[in-house]
Structures are given as structure tokens and as C-alpha cells.
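Bench notes, afternoon.
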Amino acid sequence: MLAEIVLGMAGVRFRVQVAGWGDNGLESDGLHASNPLGQVPTLVFANGTVLTETAAIMLTIHDSRPGLELVPTLDSGLRPSFWRWLMFINAAIYPSFTYGDYPQKWADQDQEGPLRTRTDQHRKRLMLHLEQQVSHPWFLGETFSALDLYIWMLIQWRPKPDWYQTHAPKLYTIAKRVDDLTVTKRVIARNGVKPLP
């Protein structure tokens, strides 16, 4: 959904191809043909170029649309913080889902075994660390950025919005603000997701 929001903010026309969900995650011959890892989002341009990884898609779209302002300007002094926390989300938080969502792929256990429990607990610690870095009204203070979109997306997943309301209210407030954007409302409706409470 983050890629859809960024494409919508940039005014890029796109078509969504739905991939089925099976016992081991996304299952689609078309998806695997474009991205052998079977991950979403996978963006296929009209010329056949394939782009994967949310951050890569977001940064590519940002660079193609002057004025989109998903990345702080060089003269703002915020770029180092932006890069730091973008990498933190992708290198530290994302893997907790990679290994925790389907622990049976990585360890001899069932879906709800100790690997799931440990990755979920580790993610909570990471999100509490992120909570301590928040400046209001957005993560970087007065400057809206792609980090705020990432926060919105992460709060949709485990440990779910109720936990954030209690334990990470600053992150939740940012996510709620993103939830109220017109482009986000369209993506929520298209994907059948409930708005944040």
C-alpha cells in the first residue's frame, strides 16, 4: 500500500495486479516471473523494467517528480536523519517480519512457535526506540517525509494499532495523520483495509 500511496501522490497512472495468498505467502506465477522472490511491491514499467523494494520504488518515483518532497531537501539539514531512519526501518524492522511471519520456513516449528514470539518482541523494542526519535507533527518535525508513510504502514501490522495507541502514541498520531490524507483514504478503500481507530 505504501507504493500505491507514493504513486498516487506523484500522479502516476498504474494498474494493480492482485497476487494470491497461500500457506507460504504470496503465490502468483506473474509475480514470480517479474520477481523470483515473490515479494510485493513489484513495479513493472511499460518498457518492461522491473523495480522491487519499497524504498527503491519510493525514491525512484520521488526523483521523477520534482516537488513531491518525500525526501528532505539538501539544505534542510534533515537528510542524515532521514537516511538513518529509512535504513533502520528497512534493515532492522522489516527483517522481523521476514522471519516472524513464516517461522516454519526458517526453523523447525509451527506458525506460532518461539521464533514468531521472539521476532514480535524484538519488533516492539525497535518500535519503542523509533518512538523516542519522533518530532511533531511529523517524524522529522515540521517536514513531512516518506518516513511518515512507513510509520503508517508499520502500524497496520503486528503488534497492531491498539498496542501503538498505548505504548507508542507519537508514532500512532503520525500514522493517524497519514490515514487522513485523501490519497491514503483511496488506497485504504481499494485494499479493503479499515481506517485506523
